[in-house]
Fold this protein.
Amino acid sequence: MTNETNKQKLAKPTADGIAQAAKTAGKKGPPPVHLWNPEFCGDLDMRIARDGTWFYLGTPIGRMPLVKLFSSIIRKDGDDYFLVTPMEKVGITVEDAPFVAIDFDVNGVGKDQTISFTTQVDDTAVAGPDHPIRVVRDAKTGEPSPYVLIRANLEALIDRKSFYRLVDIGAHAEFDGQSWFGVWSSGVFFPIILSAELEA
């Protein structure tokens, strides 16, 4: 294959081509996307909506195995998201976070508990030092948006029902010299809201 043909191929990435490359690259475990540094091939008309739904060319991707495959090769560089294979790197649009935490399990109680999240693509992460929880509040409405780090710079938005469950197992604790309401997991306290604001 000539260099010119290679350039033409890289200039027109497709979802099918990316999927095939991802299958090949991930045959022996999770694809090591952090080790790959291919040429940027442009943007792909692919979008992850805030609710975790994947779209390609404006149409929802209905095949979950394909969604899981794409989700295994996401990488975030700076503020931008890409699908990365050994040969191609294409930009995609992520409305909020690339994953949605749709459920969690709790083991233990209080400071000794662990919270294990599951995403819409069946990734799991135990909240703790390597998988912190953070809550961002909308400047205008005060509405909270909670996140948990799933892997390498990629977060999951914690869905509403799961967030309400987190609040149910929350506790007050000192954090940065102030009293906060939050949750414990893996020996780490994750603040959600100042105790004074909650009581008000």
Notes: The CA atoms of residues 46 and 59 lie 9 Å apart.
